[in-house]
Structures are given as structure tokens and as C-alpha cells.
Amino acid sequence: MRFDEAYSGKVFIMSREDGEAADAVIYGMPMDWTVSFRPGSRFGPNRIREASIGLEEYSPYLDRHLEEVNFFDAGDIPLPFGNPQRSIDMIEEYIGTLLEKGKFPLGLGGEHLVTWPVLKAMYCKYPDLAVIHIDAHTDLREEYEGEPLSHSTPIRKACELMGPEHVYSFGIRSGMREEFQYAKESGMYLAKYDVVEPLKGVLPKLAGRPVYVTIDIDVLDPAFAPGTGTAEAGGISSKELLEAIHMIADSDIQVVGGDLVEVAPAYDPTEQTVIAASKFVREMLLGWVK
């Protein structure tokens, strides 16, 4: 299951060696072919892995240790540079394979368009799927400069696939007027600016349902995560995002997969973004993989 041809030798801390026996699989989606501002998120997955070596394996938040989670780091999917459609097809095919084998998929991006093929595969297995989307941006455009395959479109595509009433967005503070109008008129849930408080109200409504969680690192204020392609002032703190991850873990929803996207290491020489991202991934593994 490991992508040997493209694999660099880096793995997330405490990754197991046997992918077939693993309950969860970490995989990278090194794609930034459609970004509208600053490229570089294709380097995010491996830098997150590198930063994980500085983590403690134990989470005092959850009182769990990574040795308690049987997970495997498969490396990065060898996506064809500059080819969005082929890249999307490859991601969807790979996730389908993981789901057939009963694995919990945890993806590392890459631009946010990579979430779209994952959602297509997840929806095939879970027709009652709901999506929790934590982000600075609405991502509700139908196209960007005439291109329907764009990192600004995955949530609109998700709404059209599974119905907007099954999509829940949090932390939103940027988007076109038309995107906010679509959210209001379509029936999807959109919480502006905040994550923790609105999430408290939504999680009980999703109890028992299969839920996919996608987190864009730019939901954080640039003070906490400058290493991203489309930074937006006025975001939440790292502490608040950790609280949201833990609230999801402690809820009665059935988390069936997740991803963390849009880490672009080149814009953060301090590495605080990849350090934070690696900790979020640890907490997602410990909290969401049952």
C-alpha cells in the first residue's frame, strides 16, 4: 500500500510497518495545480511528517498514546504534475481501495481541491454522509476564472453531490458575496468567524451519523499558521482548533475519515505551521480512530 516509487523515506512518527493490518492509513496528496495565489502546498505532507519527529507520542488532552492506534503512513500518492483531472481520479481510486479494506483514511494536502475526490469515494460507501468543513474560506464557487477544477470549489461540489443540508462549515471569514448567498439560500450550515461555539450546537444533531472532517490550516489566524497559500487575518488560535478536534472526538458522531490541507511550508521559515499541523494530525489519529 505504500507508494514506493515516490516515497521519500519520511513517515509520521510511530507509523506501523504493516499497511494491510493497520486500522488507519495516512496518505499524502501533494497537489497545488489549481491554486489562485501562492503555490507550495504540494510540499506540505512530507514537511508535516518531518515535524512529527518532534512530537511526544502521548496526548495529555486525550490520555492516549500513539502506540494505541494501529496506523500506517503510505507516503504520497504520485500525482501527475499539472494534471488536476488525472490527479483527482487517482485520489478517488485510492480512497476507494482503502474503504474496501475497511481502513480509516487520513489525508495530508495539498490544496483543498484534493478533498473533492475523497468525498466522492466516501459518499459511495456512506450515502448518509455529512461533512464538517473547518476553513477560512467558503470554497463554494462553481468555478474560478472559468476553471471548475479549483481549490475554491470543493465544498460547492460536495453540496451538489450529497445535498447542501448535509454540509457544515465553520470558521468562515472570506468568500464572494454570491457564495454567502448560496449558503444562506441552499440550506447548508455556515458559521462565520468562530468554530468552537457553533460546533457545540451542531455535533448533537449529527449523533450516530458517518461524518467526514476536512480542515484547512488557514482557518487559523496567520499569527499561528503563516505557512499557507491564502492566509486570512482574523482567524482562530491553535488552542481553539485543538478544542474543536477534541470536541469531535468526544461526540457521538461516527468520524469515518478526515484530512488536513493547504500547508505551504515555504512561507513559514519558523516552521510553526508544520509543527502545529503535525500536532493536529496526532490528535486526529488519537481522537477519531476508534
TrEMBL record:
Alphabetically sorted, this entry's keywords are: Hydrolase, Metal-binding
Q: What taxonomic classification does the UniProt entry list for its organism?
A: Bacteria, Bacillati, Bacillota, Bacilli, Bacillales
Pfam families this protein is in?
Arginase (PF00491)
Record-annotated membrane-spanning stretches: none
Question: What name does the UniProt record give this protein?
Answer: Agmatinase
Keyword Hydrolase attached: yes
Report whether Hydrolase shows up as a keyword of the record. yes
**PROSITE patterns of this UniProt entry?**
ARGINASE_1, ARGINASE_2
Name the family the entry cites: Belongs to the arginase family. Agmatinase subfamily.
Q: Which CDD domains match?
A: Agmatinase-like_2
